[in-house]
Amino acid sequence: RVVRGLKNGMQMDLPLTLTQLETEKRNDVIVLLDTGCTGSCINENTIVKLGLEQHHFENDIPVFNADGTLNAAGNITEYIRVKGQIGNHEEVLNLLITNLGKSDVFLGYEWLDFHNPKI
After folding, report:
1. What are the angstrom distances between the C-alpha of 7 and each of 38, 41, 83, 105?
2. What is the pLDDT of residue 93?
3. HSE-up of residue 64 (Cα within 13 Å, Cβ side)
4. Is residue 64, in this structure, part of any structural domain at all?
């Protein structure tokens, strides 16, 4: 498994409510629906700010930028499990932890392909 940014992706920002499974604490963030990102991720700074519990992968996941270079933040080693709600839709999300710059959360191509939302 790898996470890759694609050059020809389209994106859209939406409000997302994250609920911690362990504590039921709710936090509102902005999610970027991004067809150019192959995986769904959360910013490492958002993890710290919200105090979310992290889980470790047995094997690191390499991260590639849209231009094919390895991401400067390095491989993904951790993820979180949270309940995510956009409008009336709610589900448990496994979000990979990495540096997303100014964005809180990316929902990538695999999420969009599975749900096939009308946008």
Report:
1. 11, 18, 29, 19
2. 95
3. 13
4. no
The pLDDT of residue 9 is above 70: no
Q: Two tokens at 72?
A: 């400067």
Residues 84 and 98: their CA atoms lie apart, in Å, by 18
Residue 30: which of 21, 19, 17 has the closest Cα? 17
The verdict on residue 46 lying in a domain is: yes
State the total domains in the chain: 1
- Give the side-chain half-sphere CA count within 13 A for 1: 13
pLDDT one-digit tens code per residue, 62-102: 988 878 888 888 899 999 999 999 989 999 999 999 988 88
